[in-house]
Amino acid sequence: MTTANSRVSQTKSFMTVSLIELWERFGYYGMQALIVYFMVQRLGFEDSRANLVWSACAALIYVSPAIGGWVGDKVLGTKRTMLLGAGILAIGYALMTVPTENTLFLFMALGVIVVGNGLFKPNAGNLVRKIYDGEDAKIDSAFTIYYMAVNIGSTFSMLLTPWIKDYVSHHYGEQFGWHAAFAVCFIGLLVGMANYMVMRFTLDAYGSEPDKHPVDKKKLMMVLGASVLIVLMSTIILESETIARLFVYTAGAVVLGIFAHLIRSSEPSERAGLIAALILTVQTVFFFIFYQQMSTSLALFALRNVNWDFTVFGAHLWTWSPAQFQALNPIWIMILSPILAWVYATAGRNNKDISIAAKFALGFAVVAAGFFIYGFAGNFAVNGKTSSWVMIAGYGAYSLGELLVSGLGLAMIARYVPARMGGFMMGAYFVASGISQYLGGVVANFASVPEGLTNPLETLPIYTSLFTKLGIAALFCTLLALAVLPLMRRLTATHQAHAAAKSEAVPEQS
């Protein structure tokens, strides 16, 4: 009877966290679908500036959870920090609803979103881990469903916010359309927080040590003060390209330094696993450079050189706005995830599963295919516009590559890094991913369209040239990943041998 009640409690607790995560992702991806278009079309930014501002913001968004996780574990408590993060995110989206063209105001709003994401993101994930702590079979299934919740939220918002923007712009003026769409992101966060407040009792048994005690108001004020400081710092970084570049490259040097120190100071039995983790982390950095094209060069390609009408044999089916094409990524993720999970499970039962390193190599090959699809699409364009079905095919390959590389990144850390370094290395992994988001913006700028150039026949070769080069670069990454496979096999074998010897050395518990 107790076990049954416990199971029900676990399910309800998990649903509470999943629902607030769904609404948080609804807000974030709804904003991401429009932000580069907003800067280019509404604020008059050049492509290059819009790409770098958003990529610097994405880098900060990836780096900030390294701090937010620590605040949740040691300072305020996991649940309180998650809710505080959601509240700050709501404020950030509310600021974006203000109809102003002041760029500093936009950068400040994005800085608030950076802080909110940093406090929310790691603590929501940590709560799921705490709910299923010690139940490995359940936690794999839980995170699969959790990942689906993320994609459900992002799919609906990426389809909805561009439609809201177009509808309000058409009826009430363009200056209100953008901000009405950002208001949808704000409302989504309010719904998520309201739902959490109703269901919060289901999480009474979970949380970190500070959650068990009354709120320490002094610590809360310190966190809020630090948050204001980080908002100001983020605003300065987004405003200055030089400072943004310095920040990103410094963060990169720090991550490499951390890896070097841990490898040098670790026990000999841990070294092979850490070197393997470093190799795979570097490969992940390259992947995220490709990934960042979705909200930069590919988004602008959809704006200028894609036919937004979906037709079959001349019959019109439906029309999308350019921002809605980004929803193809989560749609493909939801389609491919269960198929890939089944393939992994079947291969595992038959002892035919391939290593994470081999899956990384396959992922790069698939990403290369996706970019070649975009690159070759120019050969079949009509008046400079490619078919919308090209976007579906390209995003399909792109998303499969994401599942093979990014989807296994955290599993790689868990597999190769000693448990005592797990949290620290998870933070380093996210920092590395953030660095590559910025580098992705730098790469996207190779397809920056000069101001005033609007003819699709002239903009098309600018994009297809970049996509073909990215396909070649992804192919090169595939060859590198294949070249290090023998080394990865040796490192993995050494790591497993040491782990087995260590487990045998531990006396059995009576």
UniProtKB/TrEMBL annotation:
SUPFAM superfamilies per UniProt: MFS general substrate transporter
CDD domains recorded: MFS_DtpA_like
Location in the cell: Cell membrane
InterPro entries: Dipep/tripep_permease, MFS_trans_sf, MFS_Transporters, POT_fam
Any Pfam family the entry gives: PTR2
Residues that span the membrane, as ranges: 22-40, 52-72, 81-98, 104-120, 141-164, 176-199, 220-237, 243-263, 272-291, 327-345, 357-377, 389-414, 426-447, 467-488
Keywords: Cell membrane, Membrane, Peptide transport, Protein transport, Transmembrane, Transmembrane helix, Transport
Main location: membrane
Membrane topology qualifier: Multi-pass membrane protein
PANTHER family documented for this protein: PROTON-DEPENDENT OLIGOPEPTIDE FAMILY TRANSPORT PROTEIN (PTHR23517:SF15), RESISTANCE PROTEIN MDTM, PUTATIVE-RELATED-RELATED (PTHR23517)
NCBIfam families named in the record: yjdL_sub1_fam (TIGR00924)
Protein's name according to its UniProt entry: Oligopeptide:H+ symporter
Species this protein is from: Shewanella corallii
